[in-house]
Amino acid sequence: MVKPVVIVVGADKGGVGKTTVSRTLLDYFSANNVQTRAFDTESPRGTLKRFHPAITEIVDMTRTADQMKIFDTLNSSLSVTVIDVRAGLMSPALASLRDIGFLEAARSGQLTFAVFHVLGSSIASLDEIAETSDFMAGAKYYLVKNFINDTQFFQWDQSTYDSYFKRIKDATDLTIPKLNEMAYEQVEVSSVPFVNFVANKGLHDDAANFSFVLRGYVRHWLANVWSEYDRINLTDLAGAKSVTRAGER
Concatenated DSSP letters for 163-209? Predict the structure, then answer.
């Protein structure tokens, strides 16, 4: 039996593209036939749920009852649970996982735990790494540079950058490339997953009329994102094998 997999996507700073990363993860697992569910912690009105309503539930991670909705149901038939943590909540969320014994369960091999830490471009983002690293024993830790909004990494010298990253044992860098602005905006307006936009499908698989050019930009971008996920063998977490490229069905 495949162990439950929990992926937390977060940052203590807002505006770094956490939900964009979560959306690409859900599309990637779907394309590779990995059963996935998601929790959107931007309660009461979530962004992730707008794009993936069928598999996403909005929760308040600060409430014990909502924590139970997530972690008391990990042994369901679904392989992967993706938690999109709202800005400012990642460190408290990880502390809660420590307090309920989740991190210890990950260390003992009862489940697989991964954190996608989406970085900002300021020195404060590196300070987040130092704080978050205290919770990473037994977890797979990915440091994500998200260029989706043309962010410049980083606004300090290389030695400062290196001094922070060397503190983190076994952390892996990931890069989310920039997407053409008009293409990104059109996907946002359409409120569909990236794969649906590429396939010219509406949210309920109805035929759409999305631009051929903009779909091409999204297809190319998504393929590059998924190449990064292939590089880190992401599907191995769920006991699956990567078989699908962006835009394929």
Answer: HHHTTSTT-EEEEE----HHHHHHHHHHT--HHHHHTTB-TTS-B--
